[in-house]
Amino acid sequence: MTRLFVPIDSTALSLDAEEVAEALALALKRQGAKAEIVRNGSRGLFWLEPLIEVETPAGRVGYGPVTPDDVPGLLAAGLLEGGEHKLRLGLVEEIPWLKRQQRLTFARCGIIDPLSLEDYEAHGGYRGLAKALTLEPAAIVDTVTASGLRGRGGAGFPTGIKWKTVLGAQADQKYIVCNADEGDSGTFADRMLLEGDPYGLIEGMTIAGLAVGATRGFVYIRSEYPHAFRTFKRAVANARDEGRLGTKILGSDFSFDIEVRLGAGAYICGEETSLLESLEGKRGVIRFKPPLPALQGLFGKPTVVNNLVTLSTVPFILAEGAEAYRDFGMGRSRGTLPVQLAGNVKRGGLVELAFGVTLDTLINDFGGGTASGRPLRAVQIGGPLGAYFPASLLDLPMDYEALAAKRGMLGHGGMVLFDDGVDLARQARFAMEFCAVESCGKCTPCRIGSTRGVEIMDRIIAGRDVEAQTALLRDLCEVMTDGSLCALGGLTPLPVLSALEHFPEDFKRPVAAAAE
Ligand SMILES: Cc1cc2nc3c(=O)[nH]c(=O)nc-3n(C[C@H](O)[C@H](O)[C@H](O)COP(=O)(O)O)c2cc1C
Ligand code: SF4
C-alpha cells in the first residue's frame, strides 16, 4: 500500500494541514485508491508547509505548500507515483536546505509516525537505552560528559557534570524533570520534538533515570502547546502499554515512569527553580540557589532538570558513542545545535548543524534573507533577553563563547530577524516591558528596575533629555545586572545595551521624528 505523509505538527496545522489531510482522505476513498495517510511531524521547512510526501521506490517525493484545493489536481497528476506537478519538490532528502544539515537530534523528526513505536525502532530508536542498560550508572554519566553535551535550555551547563552531582547524592527518591516550557521568542525546537519524535524524549529521560538512579520523571510543557501536550501524553500511554515505561523496562530490573504536566503560562516558569515550584503546585517564584536542584530539587529531592533538546540528544550519544557526537562542533561547543529561524525571514524553520556555522550562512543561505525583501538590520539571538546584532556582525559563528565575547548569548538557539523598518529604541523598551510583565517579583532590581526602565525608554523615545536619560539607563542596567537574583532581571540589560551599542542612532532621533 502506498504511504502518504501529511504533517500533524502545529505549524503545518496552522497552515491548514488538517483540511489537506481530510481532502486527501476523501479523494482517495472516492477513487478506491490503495493508499494510507500517515500523520508525521514536520521536517522544519516551514515555508513549504503543509509539505506532503509520498513514498516511491526512489524515495520520498515532496509537494508543497499544498492547499486543500490543490488535492484533486495533485491526484490527477499522479501524486501516488510521485508524478509531475507545479508543487512537486522532488526527493525531500535532496532539497538542499535539508541535505546540507547535520541532523542528529532531529534525525527522525518529520520522517516517522510520531506515535508508532515500530517506526521509532525502525529508525534507530531504543538503541541508546539498550546500550545504557549494559553500563554502570557512572559509565553512562561518563559517556555523556565525554560527548561534551551542554544544556540547550540557555545556560549551556555541561550535562554530564549535572548528572554526576545527582548520581552522587544520597536519597530515597530522585527525579528527572524535563523543561519543555520553551518561552523564548522565535523558538520551537522543543515543540517540534514533542510533536514529531516523542519517544526520543521518553528514551532520553529513561537513560537519565538509569544514569542517576531516578525512577520518576516529569515533563513540564508550556500551556501554549496543546497539540504537543496531547501527542506527548499519548506517547507516554503507548510506551507504558508496551512496557517501555513502568516496571522492568526492556526486560531489565529498572523501573521508570513519566508524568506530563501543563505549564502555568509565565516566562519565569521556564527557570528551573521556578519550574520546580510550579510543579509542586505553588506559584512560579524563583528559589534562591544554593541548594542546587541537583541536590535539593523537586519535593526537596535530588533532581536533574534538563531542557527537552538536551534530553532528546542523549539517545544518539549512547547509541553512537561519545566521540561520534563530540566530533561535531568547535571549541567547547560540541555536537550540533538546532537553530530556529523566525521573525522577518523568507525561509523560516529549523536547521540542525554542528556548532560553528556563521550567522550569515544561517540567515542568508538557509533563511534566504528577510521575508519583506528589505535589508536585514538586526537579528536577536537567544530569546527576548538576547542581544541584537547588526548585519555587520554576521560572520560570527554560532558558538557559546563566540557570542558571549560579543556580549550576546546563544540561549535556546532561536534567531529572530528584523529588516530596516525596526526601531531599536522601541525594542529596548520592549525588553524592559517584557521584564516588568514577566518578573516573579522577588527582588527589587528586576521588579522595580524594569518598570523604571520602561519610563526611561519612554522619555528617550519622546526625545526628552536624551543624554541624561541614556546615562540613567546605563546606570539602571548595571544595577539590574549586578543586583538581580536570577537571569531574568540579570539579562534584561543585554538587549538594551546591545541596541545602544550597535544602533545608537535610534536613541538620538530628533523630537519630531521620535514623536510620530
Ligand atoms: C528567565 C528564565 C527562563 C528560562 N526558560 C527556560 C525554558 O523555557 N526552557 C529551558 O529549557 N530552560 C529555560 N531556562 C533555563 C533553566 O533555568 C535551566 O537552566 C535549564 O532548564 C537547564 O537545562 P539544560 O542544562 O538542559 O539547559 C530559563 C532560565 C531563565 C533564567
Ligand atoms: S530577577 Fe526578577 S524574576 Fe528573577 S528572582 Fe528577581 S524578581 Fe524574580
UniProtKB/TrEMBL annotation:
Domain NADH-ubiquinone oxidoreductase 51kDa subunit iron-sulphur binding: 425-470
Listed InterPro entries: NADH-UbQ_OxRdtase_51kDa_CS, Nuo51_FMN-bd, Nuo51_FMN-bd_sf, Nuop51_4Fe4S-bd, Nuop51_4Fe4S-bd_sf, Thioredoxin-like_sf
Regions annotated as coiled coil: none
Organism domain of life: Bacteria
Family annotation (SMART domains): NADH_4Fe-4S
Name of a matching Pfam family: NADH_4Fe-4S
Similarity comment: family membership: Belongs to the complex I 51 kDa subunit family.
Protein name as catalogued: Formate dehydrogenase subunit beta
UniProt source species: Hypericibacter terrae
Gene: nuoF
